Amino acid sequence: MFRALSSTTVRWRPLEGEGLEHLTLRASNASFGAAIRAESVVIGERDSVAYGVRYRIDCDAGWRVTALTVETMDGRSLHLLSDGSGHWRTAEGAALPRFDGCIDVDLAGTPFTNTLPIRRLGLDSRFGTVTLRMLYVPFDTFEPSVDGQRYTCIEDGRLYRYAADDLSFTADLPVDEDGLVIDYPTLFGRLSPETI
């Protein structure tokens, strides 16, 4: 359904306010300890407060998150590790059982994390709707929490519906051949490759 991952760079901009995300996604080798690595810098504003964030997400070959690092330009950071099966721990090894069952992560301020469940599950139109527990990290507090989300494939390999578990927000997300969001209605627009 999606092409084999090669190194790719994409940029998104928020549709409201100022900002930009620059993301590099690549297949990694064993020296990185991950099969897939996403690295990104996001600058923007939320509620008139400017922020700058850098994140790295490592996944195994099945797109299961194994490590998450998020850092702000003002010195705050979050580093979590996962076994890829929904069991999380701190970088120091302390178990985080409240996140059990969260295989994917959702970071506020980026459309990239929608790619994780889309690629991991290989959703097609026969699946119906899948409900997931996500490890959600807001960029304002950096306090992770569990968030229920729903994904439905509308058009195989091309269009997916994201919905909050309580259905308070829904968006149809067109994706490219890598499963990366092209347009996120009301939130993000992707810049064309010619502008990168």
Description:
The protein is mostly beta strands. It has one domain (8-195). The chain is built from one helix and 14 strands. It has one helix spanning 115-121, and strands at residues 8-14, 20-27, 36-46, 49-59, 65-72, 77-82, 88-90, 104-107, 129-137, 145-155, 159-164, 170-174, 183-184, 188-190. A hairpin with a 3-residue loop joins strand 10 (145-155) and strand 11 (159-164). The two termini are 26 Å apart. It holds the Pfam family Glycolipid_bind. InterPro entries: Glycolipid-bd_prot_put. This is Transcriptional regulator.
Q: What labels would you give this structure?
A:
14 strands; 196 residues; mainly beta; 9-stranded antiparallel sheet; 1 helix; Transcriptional regulator; Glycolipid-bd_prot_put
Fold blueprint:
Layout: E1 8-14, E2 20-27, E3 36-46, E4 49-59, E5 65-72, E6 77-82, E7 88-90, E8 104-107, H1 115-121, E9 129-137, E10 145-155, E11 159-164, E12 170-174, E13 183-184, E14 188-190
Parallel strand pairs: 8-9
Antiparallel strand pairs: 1-2, 1-14, 2-3, 3-4, 4-5, 5-6, 6-7, 9-10, 10-11, 11-12, 13-14
Summed up:
The protein is mainly beta and 196 residues long. It has one helix at residues 115-121, and strands spanning 8-14, 20-27, 36-46, 49-59, 65-72, 77-82, 88-90, 104-107, 129-137, 145-155, 159-164, 170-174, 183-184, 188-190. It starts with 7 loop residues before the first strand and ends in a 6-residue tail after the last strand.
Taking the sheet with the most strands, its summary is:
9 strands, antiparallel
Strand order of the largest sheet: 7-6-5-4-3-2-1-14-13
Class inferred from helices and paired strands: mainly beta
Count of DSSP helices? 1
Write the H/E string, N to C: EEEEEEEEHEEEEEE
Query: What is the CA-CA span between the terminal residues?
Result: 26 Å
| Overall shape | globular
The radius of gyration computed from the alpha-carbon positions, rounded to a whole number of angstroms, is 16 Å
Strand content: over 45%
Which residues form runs of ≥5 with pLDDT under 50?
none
**Percent helix:** under 10%
Strand element count: 14
Mean pLDDT: 92
